[in-house]
UniProtKB/TrEMBL annotation:
Pfam families per record: MarR_2 (PF12802)
GO molecular function, one term: DNA binding
Keyword Magnesium: no
Keyword DNA-binding: yes
Gene Ontology biological process terms in this record: response to stress
Organism: Pseudosporangium ferrugineum
InterPro entries with a match to the protein in the record: HTH_MarR-typ (IPR000835), MarR/SlyA-like (IPR039422), WH-like_DNA-bd_sf (IPR036388), WH_DNA-bd_sf (IPR036390)
Protein name: DNA-binding MarR family transcriptional regulator
Amino acid sequence: MVDDTGIAARRELLVHLRELLKAVRLMKNDLAVHHPDAPPGTLAVLALIEAMEHEPAGRCHIKDLAAHSSLDPSTVSRAVAAVVRAGLVARTADPHDGRASVLGLTPDGRRVLGGVTAWTDERLADALKDWNTEDIVVFTALLRRFSADLMSRHHQPLEAAR
């Protein structure tokens, strides 16, 4: 027997996922207006470089960025080239492998990322002003779970996912 309720719920979810993606696109468009010093499409790269600087290895290579972001290395390479040109990221020789470059945020990169993070937090605070903290925590946990479950099935045949 087909679970019509489950099908309807998933279709409703898909509708709202499209709305969420639309909201994110609109926010990204606003971000470009308010922070023109951040090259379009590079904020995730800046945030990942900063996060990877705090990992035990303390180093960030393009291949690591590609793996962490699930993007093609050529896509990441273009984004890195844009932030390097903008003076937000510096490349230095890897002391452990002279053939590789280590990426790190410049002071301008930290300033830009800090400004964007503050602006984004203000936007989220405004959008969530009628939510209580518990609702935000529950939503965050469910969103994290949904993302993890969806990513765990990447490249998995549909039959194996059932």
